[in-house]
Amino acid sequence: MNLIKLSWKYLVFRPFSTGLNVILLALGLAIIIVLLLMQEQLEKKMNEDAAGIDLVVGAKGSPLQLILSSVYHIDFPTGNIDLEEARNLSRNRLVKNTIPLALGDNYQGFRIVGTNLDYLELYQAEFENGKSWSKAFQVVLGAEVAEKLGLKEGDEFMGSHGISEGSHDHEANYYHVSGVLKPKGNVVDRLILTSIESVWLTHEEDEESEEMEKSISSEITLNGLPQSEEPKEITTLLVQYRNPMAAIQLPRLVNSRTNMQAASPSFEMSRLFELLGVGISMLKGLAFVLIGISGLGIFIALYNSLKDRKYDLAILRAIGASRFQLVLLIFMEGFILTFLGAIIGILIGHSFLALIISQNQTGVMVSLQPWIFLKSELWVVAYAFVVGVLASVIPAFTAYQTSIAKQLTKA
Q1: Phi, psi torsion values for 362, nearest 5 degrees
Q2: N or C, which terminus of the chain has less Cβ within 10 Å?
Q3: Is residue 381 within 8 Å of 29, Cβ to Cβ?
């Protein structure tokens, strides 16, 4: 006797009930799968992007906004800070190294970041082709930028004012692509990197053309903070501590004695994940409720079907089926329902995340991988199977008690 085939025939005989239970289970699993994929990948990528950065110093405002805009490049900067004040901080005995950033422009939604070569070293960037910038208006493209925009070494483009696309172009100067980086799976993949002097010169479009050409031909700063005889500003300063004591003293020093603010990436991201955790927990709770409802639906479907199948079960017993085989038949139906729900739920979850990613051309969502499978997904599937088994216990016990003589006599 082929129990699997027989169980399947009983299920397809009730297509609407079977389909509803499978869909409810699949939706619950899909919600959990999407949340697991996003939570685990986002936390991992954000920790990787912040690795090596102990402190971020910028204009006063929201500390979280400062971290998001300077480390992850997914928010607007809080403002600019004075270059000389940043230079004084970089000379502090508690500071091991500082990396300046100058933000404010984009090209088709990808941010143009003015910095120095220490930024490439921080993320261990490697070149696919070309080389780093050596003079003003040369840029290095992240792998994702080059792929999405179809740019390569030697190409030129015109930057636009503002962090997001749609603003006016800086028509006075063109950026020249000097190199393209290998994909690293971090924030550098979606950035356009250049020197800070390039960002400054881009915003000096009122200058006389002769003076501009003279400035462009001058040397740029490849390491450390840029030099300028005139008062200049940068957006933020990424700081690395010299010793553990700096974690205690330096943020307090910056926040109390300067016009700047200091924010710790690890502290701010812990707060963010803690806040997001409440919403994620609520959504997971909703998903588990859906799975529970689907389990209840499986129980009701199996139990009600037994009323119409008692004569069939009695016939099976009469032709030689054992009580154990009847119990196994009912459990097989619950198993098939949960198996279909699990497969469809996993496919829906991964497909939905792929759809979300496809709708975001820039930003941290683009770096997520929708088709990787996590070990935690197996636990979710196991939970679904437990629900299916529990929903089948009472109907299976009822099938076990089926009396051949009683049912055939009724017939």
Answers
A1: -130, 170
A2: C
A3: yes
Can you give the pLDDT at residue 408?
55
Return the number of other C-beta atoms located less than 10 Å from residue 205's C-beta.
11
Interior/surface letters 81-119, b for 16+ CB within 10 angstroms, e for the rest: bbbebbbebbeeebbebbbbbbbbbbbbbbbbbbbbbbb
Stated pTM of the model = 0.79
Q: Predicted confidence band at 406 (pLDDT cuts at 50, 70, 90)?
A: low
130 forms beta bridges with 179
In 3D, which of 156, 203, 163 has the Cα closest to residue 178? Answer: 156
Residue whose C-alpha is closest to residue 348's, from 16, 19, 30: 30
Amino acid at 8: W
Are the C-beta atoms of residues 196 and 233 closer than 8 Å to each other? no
Closest CA to 399 of 296, 299, 328: 328
Distances (CA, A) of 46 to 39, 67, 89: 11, 11, 26
Q: Report percent pLDDT > 90 for the chain.
A: 40
Query: What's the confidence (pLDDT) of residue 361?
Result: 64
CA distance 159 to 203: 11
Structure confidence by residue, pLDDT tens digits, 145-200: 999 999 999 999 988 888 766 666 766 678 999 999 999 988 999 999 999 999 98
What is 129-143 written as a DSSP string?
A: EE----STTEEEE-H
Place of tokens 């008062």: 231
Domain ranges for the chain = 3-45+277-410, 55-263
In a 13 Å sphere around the CA of 279, the CA atoms on its Cβ side amount to 6
Q: Is 232 helix (H, G, I), strand (E, B) or coil?
A: coil
d(CA 336, CA 329): 11
